[in-house]
């Protein structure tokens, strides 16, 4: 193992007394972001003003940062661009893919997909009319459901609730064998598990950066378009930043070269600066080490919890190859149990109706943290603390 | 006049020796943003982590800040929400409007509109097919072109190049008289001129915040939907944050109540924090005072430049009612003249092929600044400095 996890942990601000197992929802703050945000605000915006677009390199930021993300998902340089939110990027990928496969009318997805992906697909289908439809099957039925009626599938590699991991290679190959396009949502993959979008032949990939890439709340999303499609994909959201010459102010739209056309509006420079600084943590980190350590942490947690808390049912596949970087347990009192854990400084999260999620991100979580989290959870379960009224109040949104 | 412009000017960081006449492109940094960004990053993100969505009020931010913007554009409370970029908000407004007027196929716009609006409309028309079309006429022909073939018009109130201002009242009334919907882009209006979207009967309005509202590079956009349409407008970009119950994780989409449905993905909390702090400048500012002072500054500039620089041709309407808050002059050497001005600390900008733009934002620009800018411009013109090679190099994007 070449990655120094003691060193990466030291790069994060983590509150005293907290074991943070929710990096799969919002990554913690890398120290370096603070100075970077201060200088982006005071020195770039404050002093350069409009000149920042040139002098501070703001205009190139979505592409330059995109290349840093590309390395982490096995994408070719120049094939990833940052911007907008993941939902918007899903819309872009889907709309382009459907046009590239004009004789078919079906988007295939699964019921384990993050709901926003399904909502966006449903919205696009309604906008298009003309017989377009969204077909949603169970996660384990996806492979069989890929047939020659499918224009494109939209699959999230790692299930947001269970951590179940799809087989990207098998599904992509099947799609291509029947003439369908493969769109992968990497929200729970980028920075969590090794991803090889290029080697796996993904047509499009999208993802967010505020989870395992630690860009902060509302950090920009990314979109990958395979180089073979970049010059033919028509951007449905044809904003000026994706124009071939944004500052020529032509009245007519001409799509920019390559991945640039997937830019839409003015990029969120402050959030991009936070992301750029957060990505420094990844210099010298090997994704294979991340994977090995994250599985080790997950196994440690599963063993500990199963030994001490028989009422919690493992909701994540036990096999390494079938899971991502999070571990989930189910319990009818899941909500109150999670509140009790948070009160003790162990922060995971809850997904209705009964899933407790725990993310194991080796950049800042150690085996000792996991052992301590198991102890605390065991105590809560033994004392049936979920019955305490203060943990039953549902006034929280996440 | 009740607004204290000496006090508002003191709220901004402005670099030494700079007269900043480009707030119509990127507003300068309000002091308050620095401390707010630092605390949002270190205290909210860093210490609250995922709990910030509840404890720091992140989840309500798009709506809460939307209400602050609503006041500045004459919108009803609860009818504006923040997020995404202006191009995305244009897409949302257009897609919803077309569906509300299903028997018509024409989007009307004008050649003075900001190109991204036209590009987005063109992209939507291509996605929809089925005979939809974008009709673009000259700015002065818009009123006559509003006929009963028009589903919706998409008009930017103040022209980004010339500062020419459309008559929002007349155009909106004509649209309604023929059964068309009115979508107003307020990019160069919000914070620049008094806007009364509710009183004028606008159906939709959109705008950005990084110009006159000083939210910083890439600050979030806004969308207004008239209360009478809020429950019927279907969101084409149906992301989870616009769902009636985002954290129920239903597989099916149900649009949220009112303006909430125009939210899409996870909101950009860092950029929203910058905007929120920047909006504090507007407490105690009367838009009528802003308008009176901005016209006074514009007149002072026009008189001065016309007296001293006969080669510069005024490109902005002279009549107060026909112009916004910027003044533009045209010159074949506009690009090089603007570079020469910037070298002297007078920052405006250039829009191809020959427009020099100067924004007059009374929050931080005084009559003395205008007089000094006129002197500097006069000297540049008298010395024909545009011939200097260093000002002719076109290596800049903005």
UniProtKB/TrEMBL annotation, chains A, B:
UniProt keyword Hydrolase, yes or no: yes
Pathway assigned in UniProt: Cofactor biosynthesis; NAD(+) biosynthesis; quinolinate from L-kynurenine: step 2/3; Amino-acid degradation; L-kynurenine degradation; L-alanine and anthranilate from L-kynurenine: step 1/1
Keyword Hydrolase part of the UniProt annotation: yes
Keyword tags: Hydrolase, Pyridine nucleotide biosynthesis, Pyridoxal phosphate
Catalytic activities: L-kynurenine + H2O = anthranilate + L-alanine + H(+); 3-hydroxy-L-kynurenine + H2O = 3-hydroxyanthranilate + L-alanine + H(+)
Family from the record: Belongs to the kynureninase family.
SUPFAM superfamilies (UniProt xref): PLP-dependent transferases (SSF53383)
Cofactor: pyridoxal 5'-phosphate
Function: Catalyzes the cleavage of L-kynurenine (L-Kyn) and L-3-hydroxykynurenine (L-3OHKyn) into anthranilic acid (AA) and 3-hydroxyanthranilic acid (3-OHAA), respectively.
Subunit (UniProt): Homodimer.
Enzyme Commission code: 3.7.1.3
Protein name in UniProt: Kynureninase
PANTHER family: KYNURENINASE (PTHR14084)
Transmembrane segments: none
UniProt xrefs under InterPro entries: Kynureninase, PyrdxlP-dep_Trfase, PyrdxlP-dep_Trfase_major, PyrdxlP-dep_Trfase_small
Domain of life: Bacteria
Position of the signal peptide: none
Positions of pyridoxal 5'-phosphate binding: 86-87, 114-117, 156, 185, 188, 210, 240, 266
Modified residues (N6-(pyridoxal phosphate)lysine): 211
GO molecular function: kynureninase activity
């Amino acid at each position: 193992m070449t990655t120094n996890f003691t060193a990466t942990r030291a790069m994060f601000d983590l509150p005293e007394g907290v074991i943070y197992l929710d990096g799969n929802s919002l990554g913690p703050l890398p120290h370096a972001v603070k100075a970077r945000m201060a200088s982006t605000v005071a020195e770039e915006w404050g002093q350069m003003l409009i000149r920042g677009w040139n002098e501070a390199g703001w205009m190139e930021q979505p592409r330059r940062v995109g290349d840093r993300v590309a390395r982490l998902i096995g994408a070719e340089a120049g094939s990833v661009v940052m911007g907008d939110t993941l939902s918007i990027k899903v819309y872009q990928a889907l709309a382009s893919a459907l046009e590239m496969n004009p004789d078919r009318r079906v988007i295939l997805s699964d019921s384990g997909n993050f709901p926003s992906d399904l909502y966006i697909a449903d919205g696009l289908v309604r906008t298009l009319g003309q017989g377009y439809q969204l077909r949603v099957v169970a996660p384990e039925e996806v492979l069989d459901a890929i047939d020659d009626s499918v224009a494109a599938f939209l699959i999230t590699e790692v299930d947001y609730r269970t951590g179940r991991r799809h087989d990207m290679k098998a599904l992509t190959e099947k799609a291509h064998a029947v003439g369908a396009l493969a769109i992968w949502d990497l929200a729970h993959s980028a920075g969590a598990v090794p991803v090889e979008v290029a080697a796996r032949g993904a047509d499009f990939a999208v993802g967010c950066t505020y989870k395992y890439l630690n860009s902060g709340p509302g950090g920009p999303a990314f979109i990958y378009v395979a180089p073979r499609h970049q010059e033919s994909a028509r951007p449905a959201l044809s904003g000026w930043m994706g124009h071939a010459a944004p500052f020529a102010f032509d009245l007519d739209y001409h799509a920019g070269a390559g991945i640039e056309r997937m830019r839409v509006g003015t990029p969120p420079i402050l959030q991009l600066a936070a992301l750029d600084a957060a990505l420094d943590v990844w210099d010298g980190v090997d994704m294979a080490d991340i994977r090995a350590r994250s599985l080790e942490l997950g196994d440690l947690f599963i063993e500990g919890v199963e030994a001490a808390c028989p009422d919690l049912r493992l909701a994540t596949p036990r096999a390494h190859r079938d899971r991502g970087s999070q571990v989930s347990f189910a319990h009818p009192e899941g909500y109150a149990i999670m509140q009790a854990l948070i009160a003790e400084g162990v922060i995971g999260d809850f997904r209705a109706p009964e899933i407790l999620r725990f993310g194991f991100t080796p950049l800042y979580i150690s085996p000792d943290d996991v052992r301590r989290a198991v102890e605390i959870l065991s105590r809560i379960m033994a004392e049936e603390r979920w019955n305490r009224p203060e943990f039953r109040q549902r006034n929280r949104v996440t």
